[in-house]
């Protein structure tokens, strides 16, 4: 198969982790006989520095003409004082919108080898396997009006949360479809005791659920869901929620399973999917070669699964990551006292090695 991809390394640790993810992708492509066509473009602070636009036209064009996008991270303190539309984050938000990527899938899995990395007791976190389905193109992130107006000292800031029925319905269906292939449970998270958006959300989700009689739907307010997520994470299967709640709960889920550095994501629903680690640009550790590349590497697995339906290839990467973790390899975010961490590139090379071994073993047994 021809895999035509746009690579957007972006800011901070984005380029370091993306480099390793691409090496893993190349190893899988070679092992399974796929042809890669990769084109690299700029986004975020990197693009702002070069062209004063966090999402240059040629980046959008490249993304729209490829089959999938692999992104590192955006965000840089150098642009903190810039107006909203000239911040690195604006590039990412526009990219999601231009590509129609309304469904953000964020799996949070407790790897057996990493039980001791969670701040929670091992018996609580063991077996955790959550799929967060975050609505990605609505809510406070995109609602109008939005502004800061008035004179210093008496300024007023406005953001607007909006959700229409079609937007709620299409993301709910993504969650129910995923639940059918997993534990058949959907927890819809909202704040229906306070927000109109959430009341409509709950109504529409409840209506959709009628088409999925095999799936058990429950509802929870976001504050209560945040508490339950740390009290009993393994009770969760699919979490369905709006944009901002999903942003917050997915970072929390990263903490629960030991490190945000492990979390991958898929932003799909439109013509071209975007795959990126959840961790962000982490400017404090950028350029040091210590970032965890597993979130980016696991995002490649999601890409192979969701954009190309290459399930064997996706599983090969996931199994390679498990194998490397089982061998005891850990980056700085995961080490125990007294252990020496693996560098970003050492971790990446180990996954590449494991991919090659697993693929060769598969060929021998075939
Ligand atoms: C994420 C990030 C982004 C978001 C930022 C960088 C705009 O936090 O992907 O979770 O808020 O969606
Ligand atoms: Mg976030």
Question: Could you provide a short overview of the structure?
Answer:
With 366 residues, the chain is α/β, with parallel strands linked by helices. The chain has helices spanning 14-32, 45-51, 57-64, 88-98, 122-125, 165-180, 196-209, 222-231, 243-256, 294-306, 311-326, 344-365; strands at 2-10, 35-40, 68-73, 103-109, 129-135, 147-149, 156-158, 185-190, 216-221, 238-241, 264-268, 273-277.
How is the biggest beta sheet arranged?
10 strands, mixed
User: What spatial form do the alpha-carbon principal axes imply?
Assistant: globular
Distinct compounds present: 3-isopropylmalic acid, magnesium ion
Q: Which sequence of SSEs, written as H and E, runs from N to C?
A: EHEHHEHEHEEEHEHEHEHEEHHH
Helical residue percent band: 40-55%
- What's the CATH H-level superfamily name of the largest domain? Isopropylmalate Dehydrogenase
CATH architecture of the largest domain: 3-Layer(aba) Sandwich
Averaged pLDDT, please?
A: 97
